């Protein structure tokens, strides 16, 4: 009996894995067929040529450094920009969520600036900070700022009133209410905001690296490869960008599920 | 320690701008170590009264005095237990109980030791490392009781603490609460809409009328403890108190 149940489970797991793989495999086959039909590596390179680039991630490409080197440069930029964005957004979100006056004051500005895409700031960033790290950090920080801010606000507002009141009757000062009740109570939602914000920051860094005058990073690498018609490098770079973005999201989600289990379990 | 509610009235504005009178001229004098139940139909302002006593809301008129000091905000001298337990789901049971001591700056070893004492008192000795979501409703409320007692307040205020529990758990919790009260001799103000609960628990029952809440009558419960819920004296008292509540409604 038990054996058949186990067998069936294993079978179901394998079947699920196969179903998951159907579309990606079909996609790769279609790509390869298209590449053969088109027969022009400057339009659509074959699978093998892209795989060859990915297989040597430490090899220098067109004298601009390897895939891994450029990825690390991009990651460093995104981390700085994201840290700046989150460091501004979290305190502001907590203040707006806790004190209605601050919310009243800041909300119009937030509403006005929020719909402007981070990339629309590129020319202004260049005018203010010139070409370089500061401009990129500015764009990335802007991109991560709003999702973190709005989720922080949401998290702070969703903190139960009786959690705060219980702390007050136990003798908490306003500062203790903030650090020991509101922040931990809002943290799961803040974390979600950081995850979303990091995703946007990652998109921003790639775009920011396409700004004129940049000479490193994955964004730069793929644009530079275009100038030399190295389409297989462009695609390999894109895959690299996708894998890193996905990997970070999975890592953050993994922490979220472990650290903040209480959010789901608390009725 | 003496708690005095002195001529407290509360009016507030609704969202539509109407003025609602929740309480009118409520005065109560509570002796040290007394168990008082505040009883009334829903909407009579009994929770508002308790929140005013706790300092969570301000009265429109009147005062709440602890040893002749007016209460002007929440204070650790007045512990509060909420109907929804209000435990912190990210803290283990033991850290929930020691929370008040942590706020007061007590050393970790000391506060954990004190918290363990209260954990034992409420009969949850083995559950210190559990998270609140792993416990049943009754167990959670016991944790909330331990948390409130751990900072040694002079008065414990309870806002329909057993309202969300099933009947059996509720009866068991009432008995346990009386045991804890006998051991700690805290002054207790207990809000409930259950006549049965009030007659089982209280030294005196403060019966409120429907809105605006006024004191209908303060009823002494002479039955000795432990009380038998089915005894004749209790039944007579229940009938009498129910009568008071019905009169209060008809008076409107």
Characterization of this structure:
The complex is a heterodimer of chains A (267) and B (252). With 267 residues, chain A is mainly α. Chain A folds into two domains: 1-39; 45-266, Orthogonal Bundle (MetI-like fold). Chain A contains eleven helices and no strands. Chain A has helices spanning 2-38, 47-55, 67-98, 100-113, 122-129, 133-157, 161-169, 174-208, 218-227, 231-259, 261-265. Chain A starts with a helix and ends with a helix. With 252 residues, chain B is of the alpha/beta class. A six-stranded mixed beta sheet of chain B has the order 6-7-8-3-9-10, sandwiched between helices. Chain B has a four-stranded antiparallel beta sheet with strand order 2-1-4-5, with helices on one face. In chain B, β7 (155-159), α6 and β8 form a beta-alpha-beta unit. In chain B, α7 crosses α8 (232-250). Chain B is globular. The termini of chain B are far apart. The model of chain B has no long low-confidence stretch (mean pLDDT 91). The chains are: A mainly alpha (267), B alpha/beta (252).
Order of helices and strands of chain B: EEEHEEEHHHHEHEHEEH
Described by strand count, sense and barrel closure, the largest sheet of chain B is: 6 strands, mixed
Q: What value does the average pLDDT of chain B take?
A: 91
The string of secondary-structure elements of chain A, in order, is HHHHHHHHHHH
Strand order of the largest sheet of chain B: 6-7-8-3-9-10
List keywords for this structure.
heterodimer; A: 267 residues; MetI-like fold; 11 helices; flat; B: alpha/beta; six-stranded mixed beta sheet; 10 strands; 36% helix; globular
């Amino acid at each position: 009996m038990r054996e058949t149940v186990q067998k069936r489970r294993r079978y179901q797991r394998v079947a699920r894995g196969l179903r998951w793989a159907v579309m990606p495999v079909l996609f790769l086959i279609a790509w390869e067929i298209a590449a053969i039909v088109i027969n022009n590596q400057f339009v659509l390179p074959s699978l093998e040529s892209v795989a060859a680039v990915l297989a040597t991630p430490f090899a220098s490409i067109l004298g601009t450094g390897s895939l891994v080197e450029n990825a690390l440069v991009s990651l460093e930029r995104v981390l700085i920009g994201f840290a700046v964005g989150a460091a501004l957004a979290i305190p502001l979100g907590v203040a707006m969520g806790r004190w209605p006056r601050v919310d009243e004051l800041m909300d119009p500005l937030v509403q006005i600036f929020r719909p402007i895409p981070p990339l629309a700031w590129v020319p202004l960033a260049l005018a203010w900070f010139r070409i370089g790290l500061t401009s990129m950090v500015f764009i990335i920080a802007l991109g991560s700022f709003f999702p973190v801010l709005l989720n922080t606000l949401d998290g702070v507002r969703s903190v139960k009133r009786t959690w705060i009141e219980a702390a007050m009757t136990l003798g908490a000062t306003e500062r203790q209410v903030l650090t020991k009740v509101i922040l931990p109570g809002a943290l799961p939602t803040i974390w979600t905001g950081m995850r979303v914000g990091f995703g946007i920051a990652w998109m921003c860094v790639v775009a920011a690296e396409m700004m004129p005058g940049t000479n490193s990073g994955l964004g730069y690498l793929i644009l530079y490869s275009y100038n030399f018609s190295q389409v297989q490098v462009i695609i390999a770079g894109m895959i690299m960008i996708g894998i890193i973005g996905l990997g970070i999201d999975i890592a953050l989600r993994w922490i979220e599920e472990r650290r903040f289990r209480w959010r789901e379990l608390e009725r | 320690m003496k708690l005095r509610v002195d001529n407290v009235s509360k009016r507030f504005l609704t969202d539509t701008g109407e003025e609602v009178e929740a309480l009118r001229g409520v005065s109560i004098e509570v002796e040290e170590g007394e168990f008082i139940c505040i009883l009334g139909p829903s909407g009579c302002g009994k929770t508002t009264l308790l929140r005013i006593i706790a300092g969570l809301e301000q009265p429109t008129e009147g005062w709440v005095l602890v040893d002749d000091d007016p209460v002007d905000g929440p204070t650790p001298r007045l512990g509060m237990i909420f109907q929804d337990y209000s435990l912190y789901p990210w803290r283990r049971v033991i850290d929930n109980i020691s929370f008040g001591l942590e706020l007061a700056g007590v050393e970790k070893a000391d506060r954990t030791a004190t918290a363990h004492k209260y954990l034992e008192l409420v009969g949850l000795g083995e559950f210190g490392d559990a998270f609140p979501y792993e416990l049943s409703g009754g167990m959670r409320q016991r944790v909330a009781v331990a948390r409130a007692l751990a900072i040694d307040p002079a008065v414990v205020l309870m806002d329909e603490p057993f309202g969300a529990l099933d009947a059996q758990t509720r009866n068991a919790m009432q008995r346990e609460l009386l045991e804890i009260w006998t051991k700690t001799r805290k002054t207790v103000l207990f809000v409930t809409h259950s006549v049965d609960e009030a007659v089982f628990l209280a030294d005196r029952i403060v019966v409120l009328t429907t809105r605006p809440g006024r004191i209908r009558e303060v009823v002494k419960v002479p039955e000795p403890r432990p009380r038998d819920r089915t005894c004749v004296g209790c039944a007579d008292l229940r009938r009498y108190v129910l009568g008071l509540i019905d009169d209060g409604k008809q008076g409107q």
